[in-house]
Amino acid sequence: MTSSQELPRYAHxxxxxxxxxxxxxxxxxxxxxxxxxxxxxxxGNRADAEAAVEAAQRAFAAGxxxxxxxxxxxxxxxxxxxxxxxxxxxxxxxxxxxxxxxAVEVVAQVRYMGDYFRxxxxxxxxVQSSVIPTDKKxxxxxxxxxxxxxxxxxxxxxxxxxxxxxxxxxxxxxxCTAVIKPSEFTSASMLELARLFDQAGFPRGVVNxxxxxxxxVGEALxxxxxxxxxxxxxxxxxxxxxxxxxxxxxxxxxxxLGGKSPNIVFDDADLEQAVKxxxxxxxxxxxxxxxxxxxxxxxxxxxxxxxxxLVDFMxxxxxxxxxxxxTQIGPIATRPQFEKVLSYIDIAKREGAxxxxxxxxxxxxxxxxxxxxxxxxxxxxxxxxxxxxxxGPVLSVIAFDDEAEAIRIGNDVAYGLxxxxxxxxxxxxxxxxxxxxxxxxxxxxxxxxxxxxxxxGYKESGIGRExxxxxxxxxxxxxxxxxSSDLEVPNPFVRR
Length: 496
Hints:
Structural class: alpha/beta
Number of domains: 2
Helix content: 25-40%
GO molecular function: oxidoreductase activity, acting on the aldehyde or oxo group of donors, NAD or NADP as acceptor
Family: Belongs to the aldehyde dehydrogenase family.
Active site: 256
Pfam families: Aldedh
Keywords: Oxidoreductase
CATH superfamily of the largest domain: Aldehyde Dehydrogenase, Chain A, domain 1
Shape: globular
């Protein structure tokens, strides 16, 4: 057995250098499939977080970075995108070992990150201000967009590199600098990515990475006076805490939080395609996705038939080693999350829901942190299994009669991240996309996202938008400039 002293050790990335933790302490990072620790990451503290923020502040205030034109920043982003694609296989292998996601999916995700950075590379010099026609004579007014400053980026364990790129690419395009704190469960891939910033030519201190626990590093970043904005993806409880801390100093935030998304199938839908959409919505990535379609709303006339089709589709799904290309569902990423998922299965059974598929752990596979794809029918929307985010391969099936009831059930939840509608009726599709309270609504598909399209939630699913043109403005201040052409100042006691 490998001792902790023999495991490879990572370091923080601060001011362009690899820096050991000031405390000398490390955290093991484990492979969810084998259950074995394979590396150690720094257990950062407030001193490490402050050092990273100070480096980012120096880089923002003086030196090469603020002197660069937007086009020059864009060229650095483009180069970084190319380097990510060149190193995609290596980065994906590290992330797979950290969070147990399917290798085929992680490789595709990392390669796609290159497009995120190239998209914002092209956008960097296309944020256009405007001349404002005003009702005041003798003045010329226009807007300027200016980088906010140091951005704290805090990401979860389910897709650490992808979710970092959603924030980092627009922040850098805007001219900000960044300190990244990945989840303590999945820090290794981000520390590997950090080595590419220097290769891409970014000035020292523009991007920094500090790893560790939320209360010891994350809170220090959120409350640091030089941090102007926080970009966070994670659970609603942590998001609420970050929002409260940020509000004390009037920092801005983008929060991409939880979901309990309705996947709504009408009786006129192509049921075979809708079955695949239901599977993609909840069982892809073992359900460990904020946009998971964890509530399947079925029109009553097709309920039993659709459930039968879904069970048949899933009964031979292969669970196992995520490195094996034949595997379709991998392990739960962390031990606490594994136990949480099982607890919700027990809750659903106690609430009276009927388990028609799965419902068990699979201790015979790998480390044992596998949960069978699980489907519950007879679910009422007021049950906890229908209202609370499970973040695992657990599907709640709810029957409805008509459009009005589907809308009511779909919206009757604290979250509003995503929704989907399956129908051949264009009028119905348009009605549902208008009435559903969600930041993304898919029609006859599920789980599609793009660097070109905004993503974010309503209600407790978050604040702000990531991706698309809208995202870059999350990292910019809007300034209005007034220039007088009058030779004489008018009456100073009267507002102009």
